[in-house]
């Protein structure tokens, strides 16, 4: 069996498994890569909010910001300046990040990586060692058209990282339930052999933008809908006692 066949077989096996990484070992040492082929899809929003969610669950978590825009790094600066607890450390690195990630897993339980919105050295090198890839995508044709290339990259990455799980997360989705964009996106995503579609949906809410600017996670704010969305996303991928 060649590398391509092995990647497809592994992908099919992973698609049959649960989203959650249940085992204690996987839960305690985990690299979560939040990456996309396109910018403006809510990567940094999801990365920063997941990190805060985990910190409130008393998970020893660190953010790795590999994006030149440094959105997560600035988010943590604002959080630190406001002395918000729990603290969420953030490290910035660019280029090949495998060594950095392997070092961080020796010091933290979960590493959340915010990669730039493009195919990059940072994204590819992180895919080689990540346990879970979350790729946010908007429910629009322009955004969904970037997924075939990412689907191919995931297949290649599984040639040397066969345990990589990968899920697309519908992000910045319409809050109006009559709009069919979400259903259309679900139908399109079903075509990809390397990607599962997450059950959780992150809607387009102003509170996410406000939270980034104030150094909050939405789980710390009063917006019950946004708080529930992030809690459901966290519960879908993390088994925390």
Give the secondary structure arrangement, pairings included.
Layout: H1 3-16, H2 24-28, E1 30-36, H3 43-56, E2 61-65, H4 71-81, E3 90-92, H5 98-105, E4 110-117, H6 121-127, E5 132-137, H7 141-144, H8 147-157, E6 165-173, H9 181-189, E7 196-203, H10 206-214, H11 224-237
Parallel strand pairs: 1-4, 1-5, 2-3, 2-4, 5-6, 6-7
Helix pairs in contact: 3-4, 3-11
Written overview of the protein:
By secondary structure, the protein is α/β, with parallel strands linked by helices. It has one domain: 3-Layer(aba) Sandwich (Rossmann fold). The chain is built from 11 helices and 7 strands. Strands 3-2-4-1-5-6-7 form a 7-stranded parallel beta sheet, with helices on both faces. Helix 4 links the parallel strand 2 and strand 3 (90-92). Helix 3 packs across helix 4 (71-81) and helix 3 crosses helix 11 (224-237). It is globular, with a radius of gyration of 17 Å. The N and C termini lie far apart (40 Å). Mean pLDDT is 87; it is low at 1-27.
């Amino acid at each position: 069996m060649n590398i391509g066949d092995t990647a497809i077989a592994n992908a099919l096996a992973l698609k049959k498994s649960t989203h959650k990484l249940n085992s204690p070992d996987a839960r305690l040492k985990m690299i979560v890569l939040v990456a996309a082929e396109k910018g403006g899809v809510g990567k940094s929003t999801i990365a920063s909010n997941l990190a805060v969610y985990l910190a409130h669950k008393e998970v020893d978590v660190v953010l790795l910001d590999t994006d030149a825009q440094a959105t997560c790094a600035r988010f943590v600066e604002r959080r630190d300046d406001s002395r918000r607890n729990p603290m969420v450390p953030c490290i910035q690195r660019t280029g090949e990040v495998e060594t950095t990630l392997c070092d961080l897993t020796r010091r933290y339980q979960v590493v959340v990586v915010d990669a730039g919105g493009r195919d990059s050295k940072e994204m590819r090198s992180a895919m080689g060692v990540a346990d879970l890839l979350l790729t946010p995508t908007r429910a629009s044709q322009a955004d969904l058209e970037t997924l075939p290339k990412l689907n191919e990259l995931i297949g290649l990455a599984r040639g040397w990282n066969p345990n990589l799980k990968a899920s697309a997360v519908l992000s910045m989705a319409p809050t109006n339930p009559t709009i069919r964009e979400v259903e259309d996106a679900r139908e399109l995503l079903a075509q990809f052999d390397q990607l599962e579609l997450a059950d959780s949906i992150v809607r387009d809410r102003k509170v996410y933008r406000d939270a980034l600017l104030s150094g909050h996670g939405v789980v710390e704010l009063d917006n019950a809908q946004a708080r529930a969305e992030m809690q459901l996303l966290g519960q879908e991928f993390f088994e925390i006692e």
